[in-house]
Amino acid sequence: MSHYGGRTAQLSSVRLGGRRSRPRRGRALQLGILGFLLGLGAMGAAWWYTIGPRQTLSLYWLTSADNSIYYVQQERTVRAFDAQEAIRLALEELIAGPRDPHLTSAIPPQTQVLDVRVEGDDIFLNFSPEFTQGGGSTAMMSRIAQVLYTATSQNPGARVWISVEGRALEVLGGEGLILDQPLTRASFVPGFQLPAEPEAEPTTPKDSVSLMQSPKHRVAITAS
């Protein structure tokens, strides 16, 4: 009986030892797969930062000279798969503000881009409520101009629809800037005009255009 019992104990020990080896093999396999995936991720990141897809578009900032407001166009190349992603990145940069201290943005810095959708020649933009806050009629016109011209820089004939938390924006600001959507570059009134006096050009960037200011508090932007 003692010999039998000892053999049983010995066999149990062998079986248990075999069972202990399996988790080690499984763990090694898991580590191998993890290392392979990390390697693929590193290769993908290197590809993205070197030869990944890029989109080129223009950002529109604001500057002032001689009691007039001008926009400054700056070309940007961003890493994006499509125009939709490129527009989102451009708008987020506008909200973050310019690097040049001589430039500014009329978009409140707390604004968030909730959604960007491009369907053919239609561009749908959805912002957080902060987009509608602060500023008078001139600031509101500047804000819309920045968004409109930046969003359509790759397709100047595109139509832009602006929403706030999913609801179409019809009136912007307390002074009542009326938005008749969709917005287009051709339908934006008042629009961009060249500086009237040549002597004003040295104090204004060469690629700037004056934003015509309206004496009215209520400015209609009509669609073509």
Summarize this entry quickly:
This protein is of the alpha+beta class. α2 runs antiparallel to α3 (137-151).
Instruction: Specify the overall morphology.
Output: elongated
The count of strands amounts to: 11
Provide the spatial order of strands within the biggest beta sheet. Answer: 1-2-10-9
What kind of sheet is the major sheet? 4 strands, antiparallel
Helix content: 25-40%
Taking Cα atoms only, what radius of gyration do you get, to the nearest Å? 30 Å
* Share of β-strand residues: 25-35%
**What is the residue-averaged pLDDT?**
74
pLDDT < 50 stretches: 8-18, 190-224
Q: How widely separated are the two ends?
A: 102 Å
- Structural class given helices, strands, pairing? alpha+beta
Total DSSP helices:
3
What is the H/E order?
Answer: HEEHEEHEEEEEEE
What would your notes on this structure say?
The chain is α+β, with helices and mostly antiparallel strands. The model is unreliable at 8-18 and 190-224 (pLDDT under 50). α2 packs antiparallel against α3. It has a 4-stranded antiparallel sheet. It has a 4-stranded mixed sheet with strand order 3-4-5-6, with helices on one face. The protein has a 3-stranded mixed sheet with strand order 7-8-11, with helices on one face. The N and C termini lie far apart (102 Å). The protein is built from 3 helices and 11 strands, in the order αββαββαβββββββ. β7 and β8 form a beta hairpin.
